[in-house]
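tool=predict chain=A
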Amino acid sequence: MIKEFWITGVLIAFSVFGIKVGLGLAPHMYGRLISVQKKVMVLAGAFLTYLALFFSLSCLITHFNLMNYLDQFTNMLRYGMLLHLAVAMGLLFWGAKLLLQNPGEGKNSSLAPGLLLVLPCPVCAVVILLNLALSCSLFNFPPFLTTLILFGSLVSLYFLISIIAAPIYPEIKAAFAMACSNSPVNQADNFNTAVFAVSVFILGGIGFVYNYFLKRN
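tool=predict ok
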């Protein structure tokens, strides 16, 4: 049972990658103002980036026993929360910038906003690496056969969701169009939004410093 739960957790981590990349690539793939050549280049670049990433993880896991370096990893993981906080804050400021920018600016730089969402998250990559390394050292299963089974399962799940969502797609599209037309983002007050963001940042920083530094002392 532990093995199944472990593999399920790795699959969820991979799904986070897939959803994040899908959301980042969607504006480029379906944008009418973007040429086909640019769409192919963006899609090929994302594919090659993740292929190189996961191929590197596979080489590390199969050629090195990472559990022999567990002490070094433990020392590195002490700073994992700081790295996660830096990534989260970067995404927060990036999202606020996208929400507060003028609509005309988004059209002029249509490729730039989603590219950060397409790039691999270092925190998620390290979590996947450590989980796979630990699972390979504890469990005996053929990596290639396991990959084929998981890939087939995910493809089956994709087609199942497509069949379920296809009949209600017109209603979903109309609901999203209505939500976008009634969006209050364009009428948001920049000053109040900035005050709210700064307040959240200060309170979050105080809580983080208290729990991460002061509470340990």
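Residues 136 and 153 are 20 Å apart (CA to CA). The mean pLDDT is 73.
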